[in-house]
Specification:
Elements: H1 8-14, E1 16-17, H2 18-31, E2 33-38, E3 43-46, H3 48-54, H4 58-61, H5 76-87, E4 92-99, E5 105-116, E6 122-131, H6 133-151, E7 155-160, E8 166-169, H7 171-177, H8 181-184, H9 198-209, E9 216-223, E10 229-242, E11 245-254
Parallel strand pairs: 1-5
Antiparallel strand pairs: 2-3, 2-6, 4-5, 5-6, 7-8, 7-11, 9-10, 10-11
Length: about 260
Amino acid sequence: MAPSSDSPMRYEKKALSIAQLQGLQVVLDEHAVVSITDVSGKITYVNDKFCEISGYHREELLGRNHRIVKSTVHSDGFFRDMWRTIVNGDAWQGMIENRTKEGPSYWVQTTIMPLLNEKGKPEQYISIRTDVSDRIRAQKGLAHFKHILDQTLDCVFLFDSRTLRFMYVNLGAVEQVGYTEPELLAMTPLDIKPGYDEARFRETMAPLIGGERDHLTLETTHVAKSGKHIPVEIFLQYFPEGPGHGQCIAIVRDI
């Protein structure tokens, strides 16, 4: 006879047991932001890393619920879906923005696991988090920088010095040459500069990559997707990332 949906085997596979938690706690405390709540959501345990990232003392957190660190970013529906998942005995994973005691926000990649009793019912919930605030801030900063570049009147092309493949193009570049952004990101400067082969192009860049010049200014012609020839002035700089490797940024203006 097949196991019923409430069989111990099912619960064993779906969530951590209290005994399993005891074996993992030491490891988790070393590497993660950890808290445990009872079934009502009241905090019964926080590790040192939780206190450090939130700015609260342990005594301020115990007996409270996680609304104490809640930001205004997530909707009520977001948290309802989360609770529905864990109450049903399943793990929940997602990204959460919280707020410290002093007000600044921090982002944590979060896994919440129900801790089941011998009857297979949630008895506690353990939240295991990784601080990803620096990565999120970098992504937001990059998005903001891209937005600024898209508003500039000049065209901006960023390409790899080894492969010559475009890594970034702004809206002005897309509009100038008539290719879509995905099309350009599969291309190199040689595809829009008919007067250069690879050898000549690398020869032009050599003083930059060799450190003899900090920038180059040159006049040339770009060819748009339509075939139109566009006279341009290019300001070119090189940013090394390692020996003989880096990124080149070209700021291009119609002349």
